[in-house]
Amino acid sequence: MKKALEIMGEYSLLMVKVFQKPEKWRIFFRQSVIEAQKLMIDSIPLIFVISIFIGAVVVIQTVNNMDSPLIPKMYVGFMTREILVLEFCSTMIALILAGKIGSNIASEIGSMRITEQIDAMEIMGVNSANYLILPKIASSVVLSPFLMLFSFVVGLLGGALIIAITGLITMAQYVDGLQFSFKIHYISYSMTKMSVFAFIITSLASYYGYYAKGGSLGVGRSSTKAIVISSVLILVFDLALTKLML
Questions:
Q1: Is residue 32 within 8 Å of residue 139, measured between CB atoms?
Q2: pTM of the full structure
């Protein structure tokens, strides 16, 4: 319990240093673009592959579990859409990104810590936490909802692709299901969750990297802790946000 309170205190103090006005906005925006490319845009191929296969798998499983002839086949599209937008395209994608970008951030900042680059920045009077971490958080929180939308569209296309290949149902039935009882609130709900999850991933990974110690092995341990704790908190906040927003 004591260790947990110490971590929470260190994390809170770090976030206070992070969320200060940047000394030079031009440098902040430049770094944000670099981080957006490295953390979000470079994740698009991975998200594309995962989403298209998950969309196809959801369609196949839904068709196989709809044995009753009384249930219209259009519900395959409806169920696929609901599964993707409510849970997969936010929570599952966030868990995947926790491993990819969480380890990237923790190892990058951790390496700078053990090679004393962060100490050098502090000696020069630079707010290292603000310079290194804020662009990562800002770019991830802003762009992650669009990554969720991308995953959603690709997942639906994956479902359409498997229908076109196998003929499990007609394409018209699938499209009717996608259009049936659509609630725009579900999109905003999922985008909000994704932004919260992105903040959790980037801030925790930055925290564990910033306070890494013990050489290269310490950096590895910090990366592992960042991924595990981020994943747990994603599930906790998923439950809380679902209860609050739905």
A1: yes
A2: 0.94
